[in-house]
Amino acid sequence: MKILVCISKAPDTTSRISFTDGDTRFNEDKVQFIVNPYDEWYALVRALELKEAQGGHVTIISVGGPDLEPIIRKALAIGADDAVRVNVNATDAYQTASEIAFYAKDKGFDLILTGKETIDYNGSQIGGMLAELLNMPYVAVASKLDINGSLASIERDVPGGVEALEGMLPMVVSCAKGMAEQRIPNMRGIMAARTKPLQVSEPSGASALTNIVKYQLPAEKGAVKLFSADNLDELVQLLHTEAKVI
Amino acid sequence: MSVLVFADSHQGKLAKPTSETVYYAKQIASKIGGSVHVVTYGITDADSLAKLGNYGAEKVLVSKSVTHSNDDQLTALVAEAVNATSAKVIIFAFDPMGKMLAPRLSARLGAGLVAGAIAIPEIDGAKFTVRKNVFSGKAIASFTIQSEVKIIALLPNSVKAVAEGDSPATVENFEPAIPEARIKVKEVKAISGEGIPLPEAEIVVSAGRGLKGPENWGIVEDLAEALGAATACSRPVADIGWRPHHEHVGQTGIAIRPNLYIAAGISGAIQHLAGVNGSKTIVVINTDPEAPFFKAADYGVVGDAFEVLPKLTEAVRKFKAAN
Ligand SMILES: Cc1cc2nc3c(=O)[nH]c(=O)nc-3n(C[C@H](O)[C@H](O)[C@H](O)COP(=O)(O)OP(=O)(O)OC[C@H]3O[C@@H](n4cnc5c(N)ncnc54)[C@H](O)[C@@H]3O)c2cc1C
Ligand SMILES: Nc1ncnc2c1ncn2[C@@H]1O[C@H](COP(=O)(O)O)[C@@H](O)[C@H]1O
Question: Per DSSP, what are the bridge partners of residue B91?
Answer without folding.
Answer: B5, B152
